[in-house]
Amino acid sequence: MNPNQTIYKNQELKNALRIVWQISAILSIIILLVLFFVDEKIILSKVPTCEYKTKGGECFLCGSTRAFIELKKLNFSGAFALNRLSPFVFGLLILNSLIFFKYLFKNYKTKL
């Protein structure tokens, strides 16, 4: 049997994946709200330093917080310089949030 057919036939798995997606969407919304409504100095003071960076290296997420702040200011080149993945991840956060709001609106509308 094709693995894709198994996913569609297994309702419990579909529900579990939907719950995981909803949690990730809520976290995306929280991240965006904090980014846009909390002062950047407070954000930078509360975010811990990466453990790997304290040992002299950098992980693929190092610089993401500062890059997201630059993206908020529409400074795309500055964000890309801080972390090359940040514009892509930031776009995914926004897209995930928008799809979640569409999902909520659709489900709310069908229940009326």
Can you walk me through this structure?
It is a single chain. The chain is globular and about 50 Å long. The chain has one domain. By secondary structure, it is an all-alpha fold. The model has no long low-confidence stretch (mean pLDDT 88). It is built from 7 helices and no strands. Helix 2 crosses helix 7. It starts with a helix and ends with a helix.
Could you say which overall geometry the principal axes of the C-alpha atoms support? Answer: globular
Sheet with most strands: none
Helix run count: 7
Mean of residue pLDDT values: 88
What's the number of extended β-strand segments? 0
- Give the structural class: mainly alpha
User: Helix proportion of residues, in percent?
Assistant: over 70%
**Which radius of gyration do the C-alpha atoms yield?**
18 Å
Oligomer: single chain
The SSE order reads HHHHHHH
Strand fraction: under 5%
Domain tally: 1
In the predicted model, the low-confidence regions spanning at least 5 consecutive residues are none
Gap between N and C termini: 39 Å
What keyword list fits this structure?
mainly alpha, 112 residues, 7 helices
Q: Which SSEs are present, and which pair or pack?
A:
Elements lengths: L2 H7 L1 H27 L2 H7 L4 H4 L9 H9 L3 H7 L3 H26 L1
Helix pairs in contact: 2-7, 5-6
Compact summary:
This protein has 112 residues and is mainly alpha-helical.
